[in-house]
User: Fold this.
Amino acid sequence: MPNNHSTYRRPFFWPIFLIGFGIVLLLSNLNIIDSVNFYFLLQLWPVLLIAFGLQILFGKSNPWVGNFLAVVVVATSIAFLVFAPSLGFDIPAMSNLELETTFYEEALGGANEASIYLETGSGDLDVIGLPSGNNLIEAEVTTNGDVYFDVSSSSGRKEVSLEIDEGNGINFNFGNFFDSERISTTVELSTKVPLSLEIDQSSGSSTLDLAGIELTDLETANGSGSLTITLPAGNYPANLDTGSGSLRIDTEDGIIFNLEADVGSGRIVLDLSEEVSGYLDLSSGSGSITITVPESVGVRISGSTGSGNISVPSSYINIFGSDSSGPSENGTWESENFDRAEYQIELDVSVGSGNLRIEFE
Assistant:
């Protein structure tokens, strides 16, 4: 009997596309392509959509159509990236990819207080104290975007704004993955005058070691990425907001908390020092919250979790809600020494999905 079974020939559209993508990265690392702009490549998405649609339409009956389209798309893209500059094509985004490092500084002058605003876009951010010298701020910025550094002063108060504009669309420099140079901002702030500090970062990791800085208020907003912060001594309001990513909070002795911290999705870790007091409001949409406290600090905690458990030390006294002898979903607890402790803190903690754990240092 004749064999009516037809052999299916698998199209090679996506393998060819991935090979072409690897070739683009290799040419960039070999400096044959000066700069590869991810934003420019994204603007070819209509062509890819058309090719993918044709692949679906003809792929099974005529696999060679998909293979041919993949070769054409990849070859055309590579050829354009290689020869566009010599053919006179002006692609503004391609000319902005080389990272440049710029230094900024502003002297204290006669200022006896200051406000600092940092808008750093994407990349890594480090903020530390500047214990010596007569500058209010020193900053080192490595980016391929535009940097705006503005200073105004009035009646002994200085206002400093450092903003990074990464341009229109998405700029991504493939470059060499082993290259140590990356988009980053390092800021050193004076410890000699009171500061109001506001930080806005769209994505990337932030490390804020604010020990020794005299804050009057603090506000941070991170779209995505990790935030590690050391809070200095003092009595000031603080608001920490992270869309997605982990948040770790360490503290100096002598802080009087008035803190709100909100993480949309990610873990919160709070490590308290021995001489702390005040009020903390912590919330996480999804992710665990772990709080480490010294036994000498008096603690009252109100906790709730939509999906997860709350675990507190067995010595804590349950004053409302579930029995503290085991995991629970909500309740209020106090440490045995809460009323007589020299340092007392009150915690209001909520977790949408995840566990809440209080443990001794």
Notes: Residues 92-96, 168-180 have pLDDT under 50 and may be disordered. The chain has four helices and 24 strands. The first helix runs from residue 13 to 29. The helical segments are 13-29, 38-42, 45-58, 63-83.
